[in-house]
Amino acid sequence: MTRELARKALHLVFAAVPLSLTAGVPRLVVLALLSGMLAVAVAIEITRARIAAVGAAFTRTVGPLLRREENDRWTGATWLILVCLAAVWVLPVPGAIAVTWAAAAGDASAALVGMPLGGRLIPTSNFGKSGKSVEGSAACFLVTFFGAYQLAGLSLRLALILAAAATVAEWPRSVIDDNVRVGAATTALFLIAQMLGP
């Protein structure tokens, strides 16, 4: 539990991306910073996978924050950088704010609230008990909605849709990283809403 809470607290660092865009930082500046971060992260991922000594040093340094599957796969942090970069690159600024906020703050809030306070688990048809709590999911929904509606300035309807998408995408236990699921779901629905119009 302590590990997961620490991981999600680090997630909140990436809330700097949507907050920077909201504050008017030029998108090219944000893209440049995220591109540099991703280049470093990917270089680390490749090097630790190919050179045992580097992999061992990496595990010693950040091991307590790693999930078991991240010992031989990319870490959630690398995926989160990639999700933020893709959203800022592909989407207009309001969409980028909403999606990066969902991935950074919405997803993190599910664990930060759900793990210490969650008591009622959400049953799912495929996984029995998903391990996700009503309280955590409510936090994810509300925090994502706040970002989409207040920070990004999206319509009430679209903000609710994106909040629901982020919350549901965060539920499954899957080999696909939850940062990718949340980012992909919210990005897809934002683009669909753009195509369909008001």
Query: Which strand order spans the largest sheet, edge to edge or round the barrel?
Result: 1-2
Helix content: over 70%
| Assembly status | single chain
Series of H and E elements: HHHHHHEEHHH
- Give the biggest sheet: 2 strands, antiparallel
Tell me the count of domains: 1
First-to-last CA distance: 43 Å
What would you say this structure looks like, in words?
- The chain is mostly helical and 198 residues long.
- Helix content is 72%, strand content 5%.
- The protein has one domain (2-196).
- It contains 9 helices and 2 strands.
- α5 packs parallel to α9 (178-196).
- It is globular and about 55 Å long.
- It starts with a helix and ends with a helix.
- 41% of the residues are buried.
- Mean pLDDT is 85; it is low at 125-129.
